[in-house]
Design a protein that fits this description.
heterotrimer; A alpha+beta (268); B alpha+beta (185); C alpha/beta (835); A: 268 residues; alpha+beta; two-stranded antiparallel ribbon; 9 helices; 29% helix; 18% strand; C: 835 residues; alpha/beta; 6-stranded mixed β-sheet; 5-stranded parallel β-sheet; 15% strand; globular
């Protein structure tokens, strides 16, 4: 088995949002009450029931050309994943086969360490269930030989899933084809991500992208002495809670998580 | 078409081999997470929304839809679906669907749930009354026109071909000339 | 579509104009992207707004809504002037060489109208062709005669200079020329260009002529009938192709047979009047077979026990020249001409132009039957905004029906592809398939007529209905039986000569399915519900169920995947993809190829192609065998001419003194329409409504949103009405993105959230700054939060905001089709609370 990545080519994305819907459908994620805020982008951010999102962005380049940029946001599946490092309960883990970052929600204790640690601000906490959620690259699908739901839905090939070597080659070709200003995003941080982008514009242009994703200081603290402490506690549950208190104080309700989920219906 | 679980994978695999899109049928790793559609019955359908005609596989277990996703066999969409096509699950599994005939009496402020038989009888009587009252054997020029002028119909591109044919038969049999649908708007 | 979805991959240049496929037909981009990736194809997008499709285009050009003919007329001129046209194709496959009546006057010489205009319509005597003594059309194959179509075309569009086009459309001149040059490059025999349109072209007072202009361009460039070419009419609904094929329209019976009028008292008179004749020697004139299709249709209605003449008489007739179309229905309803109404699988309270009039009209009925999956603004109109239920007499039946996964049957997509759908689950509660419901209503009505009698009662009682079985007292409609009826079968044993092979005979037994429409008969010995579907079902299978993957040409025809009408042909007019000797214009993209050894065509099912070199012109559905650069059949002129939308922001048509399409039906004229039919800015600009507005769709909703607003995932992504406007206009009006606004027309107003965006830019129209805004039309009050919820009402999981865009649109229609002009009307936009 080989390392796999998901590749997203912004130049091919039409923002039909088949991926965003497929993610909800496959993962049985509820819809929330949204408001129109003057953009097509909705929900406005990721949330406990929104693992991925297409960003819509009006952009006028230096030559005055109007553009409409679409950009997908979802878990980056880092090689050196801060969330896995900090997770005291084993809820977050590496898929050994594909090197993606899986998530076992049963094991999540709601400590939110991952929320604080993730350099891409991906994991979202839901106060109602006291759990965190994020994209697991459709682990049940990929381990059964299927593409992730978002990738399967994509009509244009903007999203692809496959062997890292093969897709990196495609990414390089696309970058070359798109010419000046195009780049590959994701290979240079956190040991390389397993969700990578071909960007048509300069990375700095995309509002939804982290320019310089860094692992926060707390993670260093965690790694050096706090995590061993947590392992002493049974199942990590107590340890995680104590540590959360030590590091961040009492748990705070998640405003977005609380606002949604009032009366929603999920998928299968 | 009923597609068994094996069938689905076969279909999917064949397509992946042919086109390199979507799904591949790799040996399943021993530690693989269980797939929720594993023991489902699968049928194919075509998206009811736009006119591209994308195929969709509907997975059903215990009489309930548990998953809908693109049909990789379709040469049109090869498994892909847009947001509307992806949402078919919620058309089928939706507590807000109408599930009983509703009747609103003249000047009433509420709906009343009624039995089909009662509603159908009343509709038939209305049809006959309106038809008989407005039927024109001949027009102003004395030409035979045999038409019902007092009933109109709109609909529907949302029906199947067979229903469209049957519906126009019903309407023309009644003598309607005011027959229109979505194609004119 | 002349071609089909997968065929988009074979194109070199794709012109997206009058549509936004990235948003509204998203999977089309699978094949558009493939054309870009594999062929290096170029995408052109022409739209008033920078859309999702524009975002994927190589070349974007803005144009003011309603000025497409000016834009494209300029392209015709460019193509002719720069000699970019495909001469062999134009000469042999179009009417370019036909000589027209020298009395014809073109708008440029006749105050903006063609000759023959009087009292709001055209008398077309001067539009005719010159013929010889035998009635054969005179031609000049040198294309030099000043009265030949080619020269007339040249003359007519010589007025469409880039300068004047730019002043009308607001498209910068350099962008115009860029588009003309790029699209004009497909005139070479080895290049293919396709045009993709949708309601952005049809919903205009010049809708048909918008499309005609593009047809002229495609014919000049030799793009019709070839792979990667054609005109892609992207239809708005999954089965609107099929519902049109099956004649759910006032003017046609199934299979595009014109509805008979009272002036044709007998079947013979109907056939005589409606069957085209030609004196062109090589022309096949396929419609000469019409009497066979009519007879077979009559049989499918009344069976063999009713003589054909009697069946013809039983069926309703229209009055000559009368119009019974959509706008007329609601006009007549408003005037209390109807007592009963079926709104079956439709939501006209939101989808009908001038919805306020529609909603008021519904209150004037005695009864209405509304069949749908969800509560909707039509069925519940009586408790909608501004309605007082206590004053509304209309009795309403809202009947629950099965969704597409809860029954079986087929639908036809834009590519005329008939695909079967299977039943996955049962409908919720007591909901029934539409077929069951209409059968039950029919049986009840029939029973009443059998018992009590009534006028022309045999029309009802003699209808055949072999469409299912009764199980425990309840009728189960069986679509597979209907599919056979639509295909057609023999009503008696018959030995027939093979229509395509002289001397070969075939015997059929009573009850045998008819193999193709070529075998249908005019003597009543065959029945077929819709001749274009003949061949879809055979003794072995319903071909719409096929799942074959073979693609031997590599062009993506997939001829064994389901079945497309006619006769499983995937690219119609493909006889024009080869030259007069039968050689493909582009061998690398050969749709059909002549096999010398087997003496037959290979590839797609050939269309109109005779044996190579035999001189048969390939457009066999035209009586003269060639495609029409010159189209004298339309109501508003043989060549498209630019006219302003009825509601527009300019004082004058810069092209001529005739401001609007002269042949449209004006509902604000005495004796037509009603007090509610008001327009703004018709005679001169109306300062109350200074901005152009167009309606459109988003990916996440469908039509009035009658299904999708009830789908929480979709409502979450697009939760309500918005109005898109330029930064310049927003500044002028003090509006920011996210502000609540009121968009108002002469007919109504809707609340919208502002999207302020550089994707809309003000137009420079002849030196004036003109703003355009846009609104989606998927919303309605029934799924809003702050309406009155009665006992038993359903609460949406995710509420949406705002009411129907059609509250603003006008009751003015295209001169030929009467499709309302929803893509260009005048509005004002103000921030909510600001006067």
């Amino acid at each position: 088995m080989t390392e796999k990545i998901k590749l997203y080519d912004t130049s091919k994305c039409t923002a039909c949002r088949g991926c965003q819907l497929a993610c909800k459908q496959w993962n049985g994620l509820k819809a929330r009450q949204t408001e129109h805020k003057g953009t097509y982008q909705n929900p406005p951010t990721l949330g406990p029931n929104t693992f991925m999102l297409i960003h819509f962005q009006d952009y006028v380049d230096s030559k005055g050309n109007v553009k409409w940029l679409f950009c997908k946001e979802a878990c980056m599946h880092c090689t050196n994943a801060a969330c896995v490092t900090v997770c005291p309960s084993g809820a977050l883990y590496y898929n050994e086969e594909f090197k993606t970052v899986g998530m076992d929600r049963e094991k999540c204790i709601g400590c939110q360490e991952c929320v604080a640690a993730c350099p891409f601000e991906i994991p979202r906490y839901d106060s109602k269930t006291d759990k965190v959620s994020k994209c697991d690259m459709c682990e049940s699908r990929i381990s059964n030989g299927l593409d992730p739901a978002c990738v399967k839905a994509c009509p244009t090939g903007a999203l692809k899933f496959g062997d890292k070597d093969k897709l990196m080659k495609i990414a390089e070709e696309r970058k070359k084809y798109l010419g000046e200003g195009a780049s590959i995003y994701g290979e240079k941080f956190v040991g390389g991500t397993h969700f990578m982008y071909v960007l048509k514009e300069d990375p700095a242009v995309y509002e939804g992208l982290k320019k310089d994703p860094k692992v926060p200081f707390s993670l260093t603290v965690w790694k050096s002495w706090l995590k061993p402490l947590s392992l002493l506690a049974a199942g990590g549950v107590v340890g995680g809670s104590i540590l959360h208190y030590v590091l961040h104080g009492p748990k705070r309700p998640d405003p977005e998580g609380a606002a949604q989920d009032e009366k929603n219906q999920g998928g299968a | 078409m009923k597609v068994s679980r094996r069938g689905f994978l076969k279909i999917s695999g064949a397509v992946a081999a042919a086109s390199g899109l979507g799904i591949s049928l790799k040996p399943i790793a021993a530690h693989a997470k269980p797939l929720k559609i594993k023991y489902a019955t699968e049928t194919t359908t075509v998206c009811p929304y736009c006119s591209v005609g994308c195929s969709i596989i509907v997975s059903v277990r215990d009489g309930k839809v548990i998953n809908t996703e693109g049909d990789p066999d379709s040469p049109i969409n090869r498994g892909a679906l847009c947001s509307k096509g992806g949402s078919i699950y919620q058309m089928a599994v939706n507590e807000n669907r109408l599930s009983k005939p509703l009747y609103r009496a003249p000047f009433a402020s509420e709906w009343k749930e009624v039995e089909w038989e009662w509603a159908l009888d009343k509709i038939a009587e209305n049809v006959k009354k309106s038809r008989d009252k407005s039927f024109k054997k001949t027009n102003a020029k004395g030409q035979v026109v045999n038409r019902t002028e007092g009933i109109a119909s709109v609909g529907s591109a949302a029906m199947d071909l067979e229903e469209c044919f049957t519906y126009q038969k019903f309407l023309r049999g009644l003598g309607l000339v005011y027959i229109e649908h979505q194609a004119r708007i | 579509m002349t071609n089909h979805w997968v065929d988009l991959k074979n194109s070199d240049v794709l012109l997206i104009m009058g549509s936004n496929p990235a948003s509204n037909h998203p999977i089309s981009f699978k094949w558009i992207q493939e054309a870009v990736d594999k062929r290096g194809a170029k995408i052109i997008c022409v739209d008033p707004r920078y859309t999702q499709s524009a975002a994927k285009s190589h070349l974007y050009a803005p144009l003011r809504s309603g000025t497409d003919i000016a834009f494209l007329g300029g392209m015709v001129k460019y193509i002719l002037e720069k000699n970019l046209f495909h001469l062999d194709y134009v000469l042999n496959y179009t009417n370019a060489s036909f000589l027209v009546n020298p009395d014809l006057k073109l708008p440029g010489d006749n105050n903006g109208v063609f000759s023959g205009f009087a009292d709001g319509k055209y008398i077309k005597d001067t539009w005719s062709y010159q013929t010889d003594g035998e009635g054969v059309i005179k031609k000049d194959r040198s294309l030099q005669d000043p009265n030949c179509v080619f020269q007339l075309l040249k003359k007519h569009y010589s007025r469409y200079t880039p300068e004047i086009v730019s002043r009308i459309t607001g498209t910068p001149k350099d962008k115009l020329l860029e588009v003309y040059k790029l699209y004009g490059s497909t005139g070479k025999p080895d290049k293919a260009g396709v045009e993709l349109y949708a309601m952005g072209w049809t919903q205009h007072t010049v809708g048909v002529q918008n499309i005609r202009t593009m047809c002229i361009i495609q014919l000049l460039l030799g793009n019709m009938g070839i792979a990667g070419g054609g005109i892609a009419a992207m239809r708005g609904e999954s089965n609107v192709q099929g519902s049109t094929d099956h004649g759910l329209l006032f003017h046609i019976w199934p299979g595009y047979l014109g509805t008979p009028s009272g002036s044709l008292p007998t079947l013979a008179a109907y056939n005589e009047k409606n069957t085209p004749k030609t004196m062109e020697k090589e022309s096949l004139n396929w419609w000469k077979n019409k009497p066979k299709y009519v007879a077979s249709f009559l049989r499918s209605m009344y069976g063999e026990s009713v003589p054909l003449d009697e069946a013809y008489t039983l069926l309703p007739k229209v009055d000559d020249g009368a119009n019974y179309s959509w706008l007329m229905i609601f006009d007549q309803m408003y005037k209390e001409k109807f007592t009963g109404f079926f709104a079956w699988g439709m939501n006209p309270a939101c989808s009908g132009a001038h919805s306020n009039k529609v909603r008021k009209a519904l209150a004037k009925l005695d009864w209405m039957v509304n069949v749908n999956l969800f509560d909707n603004e039509t069925g519940s109109f009586w408790c909608g905004p501004g309605m007082d239920p206590k004053k509304i007499k209309t009795e309403v039946f809202m009947l629950p029906c099965a969704s597409s996964v809860e029954k079986e049957g087929s639908i036809a997509n834009s590519g005329r592809l008939m695909q079967w759908r299977y039943k996955a689950i049962s409908a919720p509660g007591e909901a029934l398939p539409d077929g069951d419901i209409m059968s039950e209503v029919f049986f009840k009505v029939k029973e009443l007529y059998e018992k009590k009698g009534g006028p022309n009662k045999e029309a009802v009682t003699k209808l055949t209905w072999p469409y299912g079985h009764k199980v425990r007292g309840q009728f189960h409609y069986e679509p597979r039986m209907v599919a056979k009826e639509v295909n057609g079968y023999f009503l008696e044993d018959k030995k027939l000569e093979n229509p395509t092979k002289k001397g070969e005979f075939k015997e059929f037994k009573k009850g045998d399915l008819v193999p193709t429409f070529a075998w249908l008969q005019d003597d009543g010995s065959t029945s077929s519900g819709c001749w274009v579907y003949c061949g879809s079902v055979n003794e072995k299978a319903n071909l719409a169920m096929r799942r074959g993957q073979a693609d031997p040409t590599g062009l993506g025809l997939y001829s064994e995947w389901c079945w497309s009408w006619p006769v499983n042909r995937r690219i119609i007019y493909n006889g024009a993809s080869v030259d007069t000797n039968g050689k493909p214009w582009d061998p690398s993209r050969a749709v059909i190829k002549w096999d010398e050894e087997e003496k037959k065509w290979k590839g797609d099912v050939p269309d109109g192609a005779g044996d190579p070199g035999k001189g048969r012109p390939p457009f066999i559905m035209k009586s003269d065998g060639v495609a029409s650069l010159y189209g004298p059949g339309l109501a508003d002129g043989p060549f498209p001419e630019h006219y302003e939308p009825l509601e527009c922001p300019v004082e004058k048509n810069l092209m001529s003194p005739q401001k609007n399409n002269p042949a449209i039906k004006r509902f604000d004229k005495p004796g037509v329409g009603s007090d509610m039919d008001v327009y703004s800015g018709v005679t001169s600009c109306d300062p109350r409504f200074p901005f152009i507005c167009a309606t459109y769709r988003v990916s996440e909703h469908w039509q009035t949103g009658v299904l999708t607003r009830w789908c929480p995932w979709l409502a979450e992504m697009q939760p309500g009405m918005f109005v898109e406007m330029s930064e310049e206009l927003a500044k002028e009006k003090g509006i920011s993105s996210g502000d609540e606004c009121i968009v108002k027309s002469a007919r109504g107003e809707v609340e919208c959230t502002a999207i302020v965006t550089p994707r809309f830019k003000p137009f420079n129209i002849d030196g004036n700054t003109i703003h355009e805004v846009g609104i989606p039309w998927h919303f309605g009050w029934i799924t809003t939060k702050h309406r009155l919820y009665k006992k038993g009402d359903k609460f949406p999981e995710v509420y949406t905001k705002g009411d129907a865009a059609n509250l603003l649109t006008s009751s003015i229609g295209d001169a030929n089709t009467m499709i309302p002009e929803s893509k260009a009307f005048m509005v004002n936009v103000v921030k909510k609370g600001v006067k």
